[in-house]
Write a structure and sequence with these properties.
Blueprint lengths: L1 H9 L2 H4 L3 H14 L15 E4 L2 E4 L13 H9 L9
Antiparallel strand pairs: 1-2
Length: 89
């Protein structure tokens, strides 16, 4: 319940308009996913390699530049909110 209430404090309906509900959902999911002990958090880092039989590939790990970038849910939230957080590009 804490994540739902915390997210509600950050979502202003007058700023988010029609996107307030999905933004609230994604931000709540992000807060749950990034909180150790919530039952939803993952301790696994980004996938940097994969192997299928004799074929292997290595990938560069994405640098996390913002806490919201650290989960899929946070990145989805940012799709609804870039102008409200001064994010460009």
């Amino acid at each position: 319940a804490f994540a739902l209430a915390d997210a509600a404090l950050l979502i202003d309906d007058s700023l988010f308009g029609d996107t307030a509900v999905p933004a609230h959902v994604y931000l709540t999911a992000h807060l749950l996913a990034s909180t150790p002990g919530s039952g939803f958090a993952s301790s696994a880092g980004p996938v940097t390699s994969a192997r299928a039989g004799e074929i292997a590939a290595t990938f560069a790990a994405m640098a996390v530049t913002d806490d919201l970038q650290s989960t899929e849910w946070g990145r989805l939230f940012l799709r609804f909110a870039p102008q409200h957080f001064g994010i460009t590009g």
